[in-house]
User: Fold this.
Amino acid sequence: MGAIGDVFGGVFGGGDDSGDAAIKGSQIQADAQREALAYLKEREALPQEFRESALKSLGGAFGVPGGMSGQEFMSNAEASPVYQALLGDRGAQEEAILRNQSATGTRTGATEAMLAQNEIDRRSRALGGTIQGIQGMANLPSLAPAIASNITGIGTTLGQGVIGAEQSRQAGQQAGFGNMLGLGQLGLSAYSAFCDPRLKEGAACIGEIDGIRIYKWMWNKEAEDLGLVGEGTGPMADEIQRFFPERVTKRNGYLFVRAA
Assistant:
């Protein structure tokens, strides 16, 4: 409120204090939300790296544009510990096939075909298991929704603080002006009760509240006869009279704004 707030202090300052408290409260809450957001982002960093890497790998496996090349995918897959573990011991598998063929007395040319098929099967199983593992990493649970919600929440919290502050300030101004018109409740000095322009000199408008202008002035020689000296602040009685004629009366021949 600028000069008006400086002049009336606690009268119009209550709304400012409430507004400042609303802003401060929203900032404290937003700071806590920022800490939570930073924690979520930290926890999300590694899973997100895994997901992106897995998606690029799958893109290569299925020839999707933007993924790694198929050759690179196969090279990486065959070098992975998972693939090697799923391959199993080739020598042991082939030995088992040869022993079985010998035991049944059917070790013939078909044996070579069985060995070749076993090689195809073991590589297919290994590749399938590797792809399944990559798909699992691509589908790791994501904290992205929680992160987005926190970002939105911070904005909402700060926005509510600003709105609450403005509402508090407006309420404070309205209450302050109402109190100013109810001079008995406000407890202003007698100087502010006499608002007749004839008693003032050097009056300067320092602000406006709901259409009522607020002035600052020095009491003149006429005012001294009423015991009014020094500086005064308040509305002009003739202007108040336009809005609240029932609150303007005369005392000692001068306009006087009385309590409600």
